Model the fold of this input.
Amino acid sequence: MDNRARRPAILITGANGEMGHGLIHALSQRNADVVAVDLHPLDESLQPLVRAHQAGDILDTQLMQRLVSKYEVTTIFHLAALLSTRSEFSPEIAHRVNVTGTLELLRLAHQQSTWSGVRTKFIFPSSIAAYGVAGKKDRLHPLKEHEYTEPTTMYGCNKVYCEHLGRYFAQYYQQLAAQPIKGGVDFRGIRFPGLISADTVPSGGTSDYGPEMIHAAAQGTPYACFVRPDTTIPFMAMPDGVKALLDLYSAPEEALTQRVYNINAFSCSAQDFYDEVQKHFPQAQVSFDPHLKRQAIVDSWPAEVNDGPARRDWGFSPTYTLASAFRDYLVPQISARYAP
Ligand code: SER
Done:
């Protein structure tokens, strides 16, 4: 195989999603060659920022192999997933997308590395949904990565398992092969808190009440929050999430002492969130109407996680607090977005 025949590129799956938007903008500022894949055609605003884009299913092996016949994939940001609420309605489909899809991409990453002899980076967003705190939420210290990983959702189970798959590919895949493998997969996972973006509203997640509340307030539409006011989980502004992805991507592999990292920004209750919304949008019409099953899912997630290893190994340090995320990022950008 003549590698010079293929152009080196970064592959992003789930490119149209919330993170994909921010990541594509950030990578285009670094002049990176990005190949974007999503079930739906790439948003028009993103198309000029990428080298190529392809609508299709990550489970479509032929489609993915056609892509690698043209591009030497050096890194995969595997963002495609069914989120936690949606996955409960179609657990088997969630498993196919979240697990089989990840396995196929890990295999593709491995294949690429055997062609190039260089380890393929595989950046994998995981989430606080990897935890299941078993009714102890109010009594726990900020959780470390290995603690309480017995999730109650299909999405959470999928994420925990794929973290293990990634570790397996990075360290043990084809361990009994007669010839040593050149290259391999350099897997790096981040467990994100609930993310809040000014550009997009998430769909199908269970931390969505945060972003939904502020987007509704900016549009002047009433919003019924589906969790109790005291419900607390960690959140993060999307620019910090994208920065974390890129910082972990850029870190030298030798600096990493583990394959999966928690990151934290600010823990806040739905009431704290509402108070900020009201400060900036005094006309906001927010009510609390807990959906018991979705409430139970959020109650199974920790109020706070320990991100010490991410800070130590690759310098993770978020910019935004709850107040500054609203003041400096969310409110200005969301208001401009919905301005008449
Ligand atoms: N935001 C994800 C979800 O709600 C969890 O981190 O599914």
Notes: The pocket of serine is lined by residues 83-84, 127-129, 155, 192, 194, 205-207 (CB under 6 Å). The chain has eleven helices and twelve strands. Residues 206 and 298 are 7 Å apart (CA to CA).
